[in-house]
Fold this sequence. Notes:
Blueprint: E1 4-5, E2 8-15, H1 24-37, E3 54-56, E4 65-74, H2 77-80, E5 86-87, H3 96-105, E6 115-121, H4 128-131, E7 134-142, H5 146-158, E8 163-168, E9 171-176, E10 181-189, E11 197-204, H6 212-219, E12 224-237, E13 240-242, E14 246-247, E15 255-256
Parallel strand pairs: 4-12
Antiparallel strand pairs: 1-5, 2-4, 2-6, 3-4, 7-11, 7-12, 8-9, 10-11, 12-13, 14-15
Amino acid sequence: MTAELADRLRIRYTxxxxxxxxxxxxxxxxxxxxxxxxxxxxxxxxxxxxxxxLGFSLALPxxxxxxxxxxxxxxxxxxxxxxxxxxxxxxxxxGPAYLDLAQMLTPLLPQGIDVACAVGLPHSEESLQExxxxxxxxxxxxxVDSDGVTEAVERLLSSTTVLVERDRKGRRVTDDxxxxxxxxxxxxxxxxxxxxxxxxxxxxxRPRGLRxxxxxxxxxxxxxxTRARRTHQxxxxxxxxxxxxxxxxQLPGACVPDHSGQLA
Length: 264
């Protein structure tokens, strides 16, 4: 089987520390500059004001941290035919271009955005935002004591319906968010701030995603979110739950797409 020209790059990166207060739009501009400086052959839209074709995974709330953010970069076929950006179905890690690119991009980005890996992917119509179905979160909260947090978690998990008011396209609606809470547990005092309390949550993103701030309103209106960190984004495939890219640990900057070797 011969190697195939990559249609796009998929990049996995972190967003940690002070950079968490930067909006998604500003992060996109940072990526545009970094890709331009790294001389990645990015494809652009047509028209009077061309824009790079970048596709981000689910937007991270401003102030939130993440161990697993994703970016799809559409490649310009005319510029990418030098042979570097290819997909080999028999060896998805083959090609030093991806390992070198992952190591090259981090110094071009602000502190806190570290590139874990980059992989070339063949053509697919499904975007990251369409593919991701759920996320794992580590949360720190204050405003309620430890017993109160535990009781709130138990109360929510034992409920069949949990109604929360939230904004939808400029109007207030009341939704039942209980189906979106796939798992939830209290983890006790925070090791960073003993007066805060920890939560781990697995929240569905379909049909409409549940944000950590909305989860807290469902638990107890007195809870205050002091820290939110997304640890995983998941794609459901039949009976399997997969990450858009899994870091292999075999080589610095190495990772692979899902088990099919295709765009998740």
